[in-house]
Amino acid sequence: SYVLTQPPSVSVAPGKTARIPCGGANIATKTVHWYQQRPGQAPVLVIYYNRDRPSGIPERFSGSNSGNTATLTISRVEAGDEADYYCQVWVWDANTGGVFGGGTKLTVL
Amino acid sequence: EVQLVESGGGLVQPGGSLRLSCAASGFTFRSYWMHWVRQAPGKGLVWVSRIKGDETGTMYADSVKGRFTISRDNAKNTLYLQMNSLRADDTAVYFCARDRDGDYVPYFDSWGQGTLVTVSS
Prior knowledge:
A: 109 residues; mainly beta; 3-stranded antiparallel sheet; B: 11 strands
């Protein structure tokens, strides 16, 4: 089965840039999506198709995908960005389907 | 505005059954693949199942295959998850989610607030 690996936590000071990696074998050959989940709330899509932003998501959020790592980048981090972030891909075989990374807790110092 | 509202969660004994519902509004329900995703307490997101808009295709995670059945009623704009032979490790918040690109690169652009299922004696 396909595994996505994320660090459990990332910390960043307000106004700085946070980078959240998502590792997977040849992940560049897959399409990665990212979700933000604040405590007690449902996930919210923040990046789709590796780098596209849904309407309403600030331009500070961006994504990239190369080699074995996809990355969610949050520029000019704000206190309100503190949340869990999950990467996700779809694996087209009969036994897999949707795959999420384990999630990364972003802490704003 | 897209709205997804889950219901049907609760406490059930191991080996028991439960049916979850997800009422959809604000979009043409029958045109979209729909999914169930779950999250155990304090844990990450796990994909569970999906169903095509016209009900001609379904898929399940190995962990629920043979025990859970996804279905939908397009006349009622409602998604269902029938859960049988429940186990303690099925305890989770269950989210329904709309799939924006189900035929090519599935991803979830709208989510419900979730319903909690607790399996315990």
